[in-house]
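Subject: sequence -> structure tokens, single chain

Hey, anyone have a minute? Need the predicted structure for the following. Not urgent.
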Amino acid sequence: MPEAANEANLVSDTIKELLVKKLMSADNLERDQIIEAAQKSVAPFGLSAEQLDAIVDYVCSRLVHSMKEGVSLIDNTTDHDENWPQKRQRAFNYWDDYKKLLLKEEWHPRVVNTLGDVTDKILGLLKDPADASEKNRRGLVIGHVQSGKTANYIGLVTKAADAGYKFIIVIAGIHNNLRRQTQQRIDLGFTGRDSTPEARRRLTGVGQMNKNRRFPVSLTNTSQDFTRRIAHQLGAGLQGFSQPVIVVIKKNVKTLQSLFSWLKNGNTFGGEQITDIPMLMIDDEADNASINTNREDLDPTKTNQEIRRILKLFKKHCYVGYTATPYANIFINPDSENEMLKDDLFPRDFIYCLDAPTDYFGAHRVFLDEEKSGKILETIEDAEPYIPINHKTKDYSVKELPPSLYEAIRVFVLAKAIRRLRGQAAKHTTMMVNLSRFVNVQRQVRDFISFYLEILKREVRYNHSLPVSAALQNKTIKELKTAFDDFYADSGVEWPDVQRILADATEAVKTVIVNSRSDEALDYKKASDNKESLTAIAVGGLSLSRGLTLEGLTVSYMYRNTKMYDTLMQMGRWFGYRPGYEDLCKVWLSDDSQGWYEYIAEATEELRSRIKQMRRDGLTPKEFGLYVRAHHGVLTVTAANKMRDAELRPLELTFSGDLRETYILPSEEEPTANNQEAVRKLYGKLEARHSDALRVLDGSSSLFWESVNWELAHDFLREFRYHRSIQSDKMAVLDYLKAISRKYPMVDIAFHSLKIEKPGQSKFELDSSAYILCQERAVGSKAGPEENTRLIRQPPEEAGYYVTNKQRVASRGAEIIGLPPEKIRQAREMAANDGGNMADKYYRFVRGRPLLMIHALDLVYKPARTAAQEILLQQVPAIGLAFPDGDYKTTIPYIVNKVWIRQNRRDGSDDLDNEEDYDE
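Reply:
Had a minute. Here:
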């Protein structure tokens, strides 16, 4: 690119940062104000309209966001004054220092203020440490993956210390690297001293903001957890410290026992309890429900026993769990409802559901926002022949990596180059590769990536400075240019500029293996201390799947097999904040994983909405816990994870507010013909008996019957053939429909049809004069190992059935059918109050009765990145049944057995039971 263009880019980057600093403190900033300020700033320089738009987009991404305060469920039967912190009138010195640090780190003032308000509310839900008579309290805070939970609980820690809590325990996961990362953040935000041994306690973070503060004492450091040796060295107990004391520990039986022994032997003075030191425990692994191993020191039951022992040592204490999903083990693990409610860690006093800031790059944006997800998600279609998703041995030999992984590496290098062109050269940039639970396989993957990087660096080094036409004669440069055209053509930069700095972008890239057995370090702090940016490809398994923040994560490549809700969401390290480079982020997943993420994202949003609804209804944490245990989707988390030996387990089940669909469809004529006949029979009954209930829909060829007797739908469902893996779902749906029939005696029935008939459109005839237009659904997109072959996704060990992509039947907005304008308006208002995502669940909430949806589908195979498709089967009936919301108490008995578990866990699923990646 000519020098003038390079100068324009430099001017553009400078204006971006100047505008951010200038407008940072503006209240209620809107996009129009930023446009006006940007226009004035660029006027003297003659920048293009595209460059002006890029400046505005960047400044908006940094400044036009806010955060709501969230909502809580509270047990109002207890005598607790939530306003005790305000009445105490204590100075909040530790919080003030932390607030200044966040503002220095360029957190938006509105977000910082909201964080302050939220932590005020959570603090108010804790016990007043000066009140010896009040009962100790238990709570749970539900956040989002990588959304700022750590910032929230550090804020809570600072305010608790200000309020008089003298000893604080932070449980930071089961891995050393996560504990170390948490310790670093505690150093920055609370203690103010760098606990790295070689740092010699130099001031850091809040310590640099206020050198005259009362520095809290940390009994752990970045390189060492709490051990018996540390306890022996301390000698004195907690009474020997005048400042607040904190420990950051792993969730490990040995560690907890060492801490208990020191507390018991050195602080009780022969008594049973520590009476004069208020203690706050933060458990940042409250959602660690799915890890069941043979390792005794990681046994969830034993770790919780040790946690309870520590809590009981303190006469005055509070326990607050933090989780990224509403499927926390505190609701799920107990074998009975009675056991759950008696659990000393159950959040009986409060559940606080946090809202994420508007600039949060989360599951909704990645999987549910169709416009954005199409630009973020890439489908892995070629990995199976190279590293089978169910490889079951640590001795598996990797012969080569899939081509899509090499492509992802090239995209990562390009993203780094583009970030440099955007003036972000000093920022950390990371790629995540998660292909195996086995450490040996991870090492092999790392070696292949390192070898490829050396080739790439060499070719770039020798060719990047050539004229474009000459450089493109090189295979590697040509592949990089192809990737640029495919992924970043609209990134606002031109290829000649990218080529020019490729050497700078690639030379710094290193490959790091991240697991408990690796000595390699992904040390962002060390790089920052050295005024360097870290550019790394992180290869790992479980260590990448729990809590660890990968700074500047831009490209993710994950080929893992799990259906566990909490595991999948925790694996989503790509969630978080991506200021100025969100448009560069790419996520490679299998089509199957994309479907499960979408399903889980919707289920999680639904449960979050349920907390808000329960708050409006005045319900308690106990009632939420009971509801979660009965939620149909949670069965995948619980029974499949817990019932390895049990033959049968009775459960209570609810479908309140749920949508159940037949996304597994037959590929053979006989079951298809049976279901076609069942649909025609239902249509005949509706025509004969309920013609008065038929509603004419404007602009639609769909058919809709309003308020017909529930038994009509029940009889139809009995005749409709389900695939055997969801046959138990059918029986449960039938039982639940009957159970709610007294409250909901009428149902709506819709025959969905396309709005516009295309030439040659497939039609499903209901009788000689009526039909609905068939909807296309893709049922396979995986390429086979040989050219011109394909694999249609099917249930495990079963031929003759297709599974729809993303395990969905109805398209978005399908449940609006038949609703009157006032109900639609009510649903949209509810969505706006919850954050603006207009999901079908809101139509479900306002309908007031069940909705049975009938679809006729043409099943097609669509190869990725092509317009071609192959029709596999036409006129296949599929159904969906949406249940009304708000009935929290109606449940049905449900018995699951080992067959159910096998069908719902998937044969060979590599969930975390057998994960090798644990710390000693």
